[in-house]
Each structure stands twice: as C-alpha cells, then as structure tokens.
Design a protein that fits this description.
Helices cover 26% and strands 32% of the residues. By secondary structure, it is α/β, with parallel strands linked by helices. The radius of gyration is 18 Å and the shape is globular. The model has no long low-confidence stretch (mean pLDDT 94).
C-alpha cells in the first residue's frame, strides 16, 4: 500500500504527496519536525504537519525572496534573515557577490540540524564564513537590536501565521515597526504572505500595515507547485528604492529568477490586486 502525506488547505481542499519513505520524525521544543522523501519532489521538510520546502521546487521560492530585493537595492552588503533554518534562502543570498555579511536568526536549532542531514542542497549555506547563525526568537532579536546595528535587506522566511507556531508573532504590526527601525537608510524588507486563495487576510493585513510603516510597499508573486493554490505572494517594503526595479545584474545561473521575471512579478492579477489598499493598486495590471 502506498504511503501518502496529506495537508489540509481548507475545509474543502487538501493536498497529497506520495511518500517513498519517512526520513525523519521528531519533536523539538517548538514544533513537530518531519522529513519525507516524496516521489515527485524529493526530500521534503514538514513542520507541525505543514509542508515547508522540497528539494524539487524550493529554488523558485528562495530565488524570488532573495534576488528581488538584492537586485533592487543599490548596495546590499548586510542582510538579516529571520527564520529560514533550512538554509535555502541563505544559499541564494550568499550567491550574490556584493553581500558581505548575513545574519540568520532561527528560533529552532533542530530545524538547522535536520536540514544539514537531510536537505544538503539547502544547507550548503551553513559552510559560508559570511553567514552567522543565531538561535534566537526573531521578533525579540529585531526589537532588541542595537540602534547602531542596521541592515540593508531584511528577509522574513517564517512559517505561516495560522495556529500557535513560532512564526505568528512575525506577522503582527509591532514586528514590522521594529523591522523598519532595523533597516538602514534605503533598506528593503521582504516577507512571505502566503496564497491569496487560502490566506487573503494575510496578504491584505500585511500589505496595509506595511504601507502604513514604510514609504513604499508592493506585493509580488510567483508560482510554487507544492504550496496550496500554487500562486504565492510576498510583500516588499522599502525605505528608498522601488523593489519592482532591478538595479543589479544577476549574472550567475538561476532556474526561475531573471530581470524580466522580476519586473513581471509585480504585475498583479485582479484577484490579488483587489485585496490591497487603493494606494498599492496603481501599478497593478488588470485594474
């Protein structure tokens, strides 16, 4: 009998992946952790029963979260990653030669250790000397940051806000205000905001709050096959440069991102644009 992993997207929709074998299961101080070898997407990290990343399609999410802000910023030397304990986002950030220092703040050490063992393609970043890993609460870290310590780009690669998981505080308004204080002049902030099909309130609320905190905020999107609905969104908020405009050239091999995709990802289908404050709809296609 085949083994299947099932995730509920809503009361009327669930997703399933055929599993060849279970590589790991355990419980950390913060959450249930599993790694499944899926037939279609390879090794897959699951936290509290929710699929987080797969070896098969992770490059889309990680390239788009990293390279959009790093290409839009004129001089992104210092980068802060909140979450991202699997290492995939840090890998893409560290591929940028102009990045000099990356601080990764992950609340759960077990996620890092499990990823090093079972997701080596993600975890290659942990060997880079430019990367500093701190096992701290991300919201507290940003709130308590020394006023003299500022970052050019801040990326929030967290679990979804639903439930009681460690990622929920990273979607509260006080966190984004702390992020704004932690950004250097001209800095850019990016946070994943889920899918408009199943998390429209997340997209709407984070967009409204970001627009209230930052001089400029925009939503962009990509397609991630293993995430519910496929269509996946990010908020990009800036204290200076327009995040929709690439300013630096990515001249190394990528599998999803390029400058044309960068610009196109900010063209919003009406379904998505209609969730946003009127001030954010001005450049949206279809409205």
């Amino acid at each position: 009998m085949a083994l299947w992993f099932s995730e509920t997207a809503s009361s009327g929709h669930r997703l399933e992946w055929k599993v060849r074998r279970v590589l790991y299961t355990g419980r950390s101080r913060f959450q249930d952790i599993a790694v499944l070898e899926t037939e279609a997407f390879g090794p897959t990290l699951v936290l509290d029963g929710i699929l987080q990343t797969t070896a098969g399609d992770e490059f889309i999410y990680h390239e788009m979260m990293a390279l959009v802000p790093l290409s839009a910023h004129p001089a992104p030397e210092r980068v802060l990653i909140i979450g991202g304990g699997d290492g995939g986002l840090a890998r893409e950030v560290l591929r940028c030669p102009w990045v000099q220092r990356v601080t990764l703040v992950e609340i759960d050490p077990e996620v890092v250790e499990v990823s090093k063992r079972y997701l080596p393609g993600h975890a290659v970043s942990f060997a880079d000397p430019r990367l500093e890993v701190l096992f701290r609460d991300g919201a507290q870290f940003v709130e308590q940051l020394d006023p003299q310590d500022r970052y050019d780009v801040i990326l929030v690669d967290s679990t979804d806000p639903e439930g009681e998981g460690p990622g929920r505080l990273l979607y509260a308004p006080p966190f984004r205000r702390a992020v704004a204080r932690a950004l250097a002049e001209g800095g850019i902030f990016v946070q994943q905001t889920g899918t408009p099909f199943y998390n429209p309130e997340t997209v709407r609320d984070v967009a409204e709050d970001s627009l209230a905190v930052f001089p400029l905020a925009k939503v962009y999107w990509c397609i991630v096959p293993t995430y519910p609905g496929g269509l996946f969104t990010f908020i990009a908020a800036s204290k200076g440069p327009d995040p929709a405009v690439p300013r630096r050239t990515v001249d190394w091999p990528t599998r999803w991102y390029n400058a044309t995709v960068h610009r196109a990802s900010f063209a919003l289908p009406p379904l998505l644009a209609e969730l946003l404050p009127p001030a954010m709809r001005a450049g949206a296609a279809g409205l």
